[in-house]
């Protein structure tokens, strides 16, 4: 593994260090959701959701698109696969 792998995946691990962000990831497993639907699932304010989504987007776990006044979010399957591979390699006993 290269240092860049550790740096990139550290950002993912840091993003996942919040319970609400982990729950948001789990919520998005079913597919793309509008921010308004995500917000209904959590006892948080809209600015707090925006912050969580920004963190998840910046590390690459989530991608977004704007439709009208609403943001829609979905998981970035490629980034999740990369992260799964990283964790597997990191924890494999040789």
The secondary-structure element order is HHEHHEEH
Number of helices: 5
The CATH H-level superfamily is Winged helix-like DNA-binding domain superfamily/Winged helix DNA-binding domain
CATH class: Mainly Alpha
Shape: elongated
Quaternary structure: single chain
Mean pLDDT: 95
Proportion in helices: 55-70%
Main sheet: strand order: 1-3-2
Describe the structure.
- With 94 residues, the protein is α+β, with helices and mostly antiparallel strands.
- The chain has a single domain, classed as Arc Repressor Mutant, subunit A.
- Helices cover 61% and strands 15% of the residues.
- The protein contains 5 helices and 3 strands.
- It has a 3-stranded antiparallel sheet.
- The mean pLDDT is 95.
Which key terms come to mind for this protein?
three-stranded antiparallel β-sheet, 94 residues, alpha+beta, 3 strands, Arc Repressor Mutant, subunit A, elongated, 5 helices
Structure described in brief:
By secondary structure, the protein is of the alpha+beta class. It has a single domain, classed as Arc Repressor Mutant, subunit A (Orthogonal Bundle), CATH 1.10.10. It has helices at residues 3-15, 19-28, 35-40, 46-58, 77-91, and strands spanning 33-34, 62-67, 70-75.
């Amino acid at each position: 593994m290269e240092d860049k792998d550790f740096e990139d995946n550290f950002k993912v691990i840091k993003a996942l260090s919040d319970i609400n962000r982990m729950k948001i990831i789990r919520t998005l497993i079913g597919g793309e959701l509008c921010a308004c639907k995500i917000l209904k699932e959590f006892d948080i304010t809209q600015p707090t959701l925006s912050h969580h989504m920004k963190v998840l987007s910046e590390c690459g776990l989530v991608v977004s698109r704007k439709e009208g006044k609403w943001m829609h979010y979905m998981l970035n399957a490629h980034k999740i696969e990369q992260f799964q591979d990283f964790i597997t390699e990191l924890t494999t006993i040789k």
